[in-house]
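Lab meeting prep.
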Amino acid sequence: MIEKIMAAADGFGQWYQKLLKSCFFLSAIAVILFQPSYFTQLPVLDKVYDVLQILAGLCIGICYLAEIVRKRRINPIVALVAVYYGILILSTLLNQGDMKGILLRSANFVIICMMLDLIAVYNPKGLISSLLIVLEAMVYLNLVTILIFPEGLYASDYFSAYWFLGYKNQMINVMLPAACFGMIRYHMETEGKLEKNWKAWIRAFILILTTVLSAVLVHSGASILITGAMLIFWLFQGCFVDKLFNFRNYLILNILLFFVIVIFRMQNLFAFLIEDILHKNLTLTGRTVIWDRTLELIGEKPILGHGVPFYEDRKLQYAIETKWINKAAGLHAHDRFLETLYRGGIVLLIHYLAILLTTNHYLMKFRKLKGAKIIAFTLFVYLTGMITEFYDFSPMFFGLMTLSCYCDRFESAGMKDAENGTEGSI
């Protein structure tokens, strides 16, 4: 019986390996899974997306299960992410929260991690190219809507201005991965040698510059810092030596910043940056008030947290209204670590740290490779932004961590191995 299952999995595996070589198929899957925020405002299109995402999820899920049966292994980060959302679903269920919302979000994020894991083994170049085409188009379309509708493309009950990629602070969820893949794609085409393909360098530069311009036009302070840092990294990446600029050091720095700013409130050390450059007050536009309330809520349910509540329930939990913020601003903790503790308590936080440490293992293993340097820095600025923000719609946050296992596949030798069907380094 087991032999028959293995034989069937092998036969099916040969079929989907051919399918994964098609850039058209990969681009179509990316378009389906990465739904722009604006499309959720179009009821008919939103329902079409729901159906397509279910079909795409089933397709990827079946292929991934077949891969597990064939190879008898699973990417540890994908497994950890799946358990992470399992804990979140359990906490939400126990607290009678928004089960529909968390189930849909969890399925989407886990399926994206599975897709990245599956395709990176057999077609890393096609994966990066397809994702770049889709995300790049979304970034440029978003800039067009910002230029045409400076006051916002649409509004909601919570905020008055949204564009193609949504609210100003959430645009980074597409812009940052797009910039990352633009850099990786350039490296894969040229091995970092400009004379091999200067057009690829220009393409990546314009894309990164567009993300900076978009952040500036919508006045998103955190996004300006993040995209600006990516631009500096792109222009001076030769100065980022791996002994100093590696994910382990980035992670340590991020945790230190969390304690300095969020816990000990020493943001006066960064007064010049906050007040003169970002033009914000030292309460970080009222975030210190939100952090205090979140810490109180964490103390109420420290083990498994509050889960993911309905929006109205979350507003009532905070009920914050000050000079700088209104009740709608309290829909999340405005910090990744605090939000993790709020939603899943100590159990979820420990699991989240396990994901970060596993990612660190791979990025340190490949730290001398260009792909690892790019992904490590991208995750660093992502995590830095999450000190004062919680990016709820962020499928590529864990997605980038999944790709950290395959940094060797973004080198010329790794791409040849993929073409020959050789397994990756996991």
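Slide two material, second protein:
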Amino acid sequence: MRSRTFWVLDDEDEAVVDDLAVGLGRTPARVLAYLLLRAEREDDPARTIQLQVGTELSRSPISDAVARLEDDELVERSTVDTDATGRPPSAWTPATDLDTSRRRVYDCHAETLLERAEAIFGRCSDTDSATGDERSGSELAVALNWHPNGLHVPFYAAVETGWYDEYGIEVELDHRAGSRRAVDAVDAGDADVGVAGAATVLRARAAGVPVVPIAVLYQRAMAVLYSTREAFGTELRSVDQLRGRRIGMPARSETGVLGRLFVSQAALGDDLEITATAGEERAALLSGEADVVTGSITDPRQLERQGETVDTLFPTDHFPIYGPTIVARESALRERRSALASFLAGTVGGWIEATDDADRAAERIADRGDDEPDRVRETFERAVEEFGHSDDSRERGWGWQREQTWNRLRTALEQGELLATDP
């Protein structure tokens, strides 16, 4: 009996797979990683049987993966001479080395994300014209959605590790007081790109603001409803416990809109009292003005550090909603497409750098904000683990968005009378 030996991917190779998966998705990334690493050991091209054994994938997903990799010019197909009759079998080699392949993966993914945005939201109209000061083709102003914090780590990581430089783009990070302010900055032309919650984006578009999401930064919204054991009187474990309670939430912020959406979807509107809050929601909780308040994932942790016992409900456990998204003006997809693609490609690199080691970015954020580096890093790591991924992003790469998810959110906002003309 004749035996054959094939080289296979192992645990030590997963870092390479991860680097590529952020721009390709897991399956094609595994195939490309195998071909790249195998090429360092063997000279002959890999046939399908070698890909099957080496990647532990079946024939069908391998066929789909190599077709996509060929389209992106990441691998090259050839044929193998054999003694058998019939069509010679195909085999593949990587088109270039690992570093160049990774750069091209991120580049191609950025363009795919822009095409995806156009497919979902339509191409921009000629009536939308840029406003504000025109920046050079290599400069990009980014309006972030809050003060410096752990959710912004990927952008800072891209700056600190040179990924934006790699794609020839100079990025200025500017912090705004909420998603709506970030959208306003993009609309006014004060920023080229903004970071804003999904509900805020849809409300702005409904009000005629010509912005379009070009990528999803985190796949799930991080809004929470929370209370202290002292304020609520018992452990908060279920939605039904909210009946007859006072819920504090800001009127127009992303968390406030999502809180109202949650109340609407849970059919609780007539069974509780919504209290409009000004400033930090937790102040209303601690003062006794509210029994439960809305917030972000970091808010309960801050109270826990003060010795409080805090219970939390996650609206996205009941209704899937995208988290912070990256938005641009519609006209920028036409007028500044190259700069947007460079920004997205650099951000993809920043994402993988941050998930590998967030220290440098965390220190930079701590210098500009109020949190210590350890807390910045902890916030980011938790956000990635619990809110950063979806089946779509695992199979298609970071930033992926689906039309159905946007349509569900739009319909829910309409049903809750939250898709107002005033964003």
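Talking points for slide two:
The first strand starts at residue 46 and ends at 47.
The radius of gyration is 24 Å.
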